[in-house]
Structures
1.
Amino acid sequence: MERGRLVISYAHPDDESFGLGAAIPKWIDDGIDVYLICATNGEVGTVPEELRGKHETTAALRLSELECARRHLKFKEVFMLGYRDSGMPGSETSRHPESLCYQWQNHPANVTDKVKEILQRARPHVVITFNRYGGYGHPDHIAIQRATVKAFEELRTPASGAALNGVYRPQKLYYAAFPKATIWLRILSARLKGQDPRRMGRNQDVDVVKTLEHIEPVHARIPVARYFDVWEQASSCHASQGGGRITRTSRWLRRFLYSKQGFTRVFPAPERDRVDEDDLFANVDLNSRQT
Ligand SMILES: [Zn+2]
């Protein structure tokens, strides 16, 4: 039997560790080959000067952090799309012609084709990306989400029947879910501290209330509590992005909030919005060449 293959399609060096750093080692343990698409080089991340080290550019530092995380997460391969980080909406950086945001707005087919090409090379049974709000509204997250969904759809239903020949078709598509309880807690703790939950994050450009409003139904929950160590190690690699901060949340609270990683199943569409899977590879035909 063939090994299961999974592609995670994300935007920045750190999205993989912060978001799925406990789920990825679980798949590796299950014998799944996990591939990562990282669409940008993370140029716009704010980096404390003392952490810059020998790296001349923010991108070089962020990529070295991703390399460190990769050693813990054991990706089969990491595909860099090489776009420029766009930063938050309306910023100067989001209008840079090499930014993912600009490219997605002006040349969407090119971005989709790049994702399609990688899906043809990696031949995943399962594809994961952000939800439709890009998790917390980051325009790069939204751009790679749209491009990944479009790529998946085009591979599932090629424009002409003839194009089916030789086209690899992934079998399942999911959005990774943010746990609702975590977002509730963030809103609550912001209010208790007198902060505005609609203006959070280092640059006060994260609207946590909107994040909550955009949460989507969860159809799969996979147990990941055994993998908190790897999650900590991989996240700590992204020190310039506050990587050690998950260890500031006590383990019991993390166990309560993050023991299971949720996913929204997009394809095949669920009949009802309820949790009906504890494994993303349920009902996947590993031997099928063209499903
Ligand atoms: Zn990101």
2.
Amino acid sequence: MERKKIAVLIGSARKESFSRKVARTLMSVAPDSLEMVIVEVDQIPFYNQDLEDAGATPPAWLVLREQVRACDGLLFVTPEYNRGLPAMLKNAVDVGSRPPGKSVWSGKPAAVVSISPGPLGGFGANHSLRQSLVSLNVPCMQQPEAYLGNVAGMFDAGGNMTADSTREFLTKFAASFARWVERQTA
Ligand SMILES: Cc1cc2nc3c(=O)[nH]c(=O)nc-3n(C[C@H](O)[C@H](O)[C@H](O)COP(=O)(O)O)c2cc1C
């Protein structure tokens, strides 16, 4: 079976980011049919149409678009900021959606995982992102949903996941996602 390349987009640039640790856990338990690569979104200038209109498109925008274009699917792992999506990740979504008619997101199968040290698991961020994905024509896996709460206690000092039940859940989640990608790209 041909491996599917998945862009992993993380909504935090923090050194000890739980989102990144969860993303790394997902990458380690994902089936072999998925080749997961992290696409960094923390150095992308804010979208401003004037730059594009003036022929001064920032190189980082072009790099992001190229990296996403080269992938078959998308895995978003994000914290929640003030019940919404962190600006950094929303900016990447916006940059990839332009110029009009040339969105790099359209048609790529996706899944969303939200995390929080609190109990609610980033539900607001998860669904705020899903709202944008609808308008971007991104077929997003509906089930299983992934809202990971209380993540602070789930890792050892080396960033390895020690919460067995969550690792098991992420393993099943990744397997479902692989099937979703397979179906959508068949
Ligand atoms: C500006 C800001 C707003 C936040 N708002 C929320 C929130 O609405 N809900 C929540 O569960 N956590 C919120 N948090 C806490 C984050 O979930 C927490 O800092 C988390 O560790 C960030 O993700 P990371 O570990 O991947 O960097 C907020 C943090 C910041 C910095």
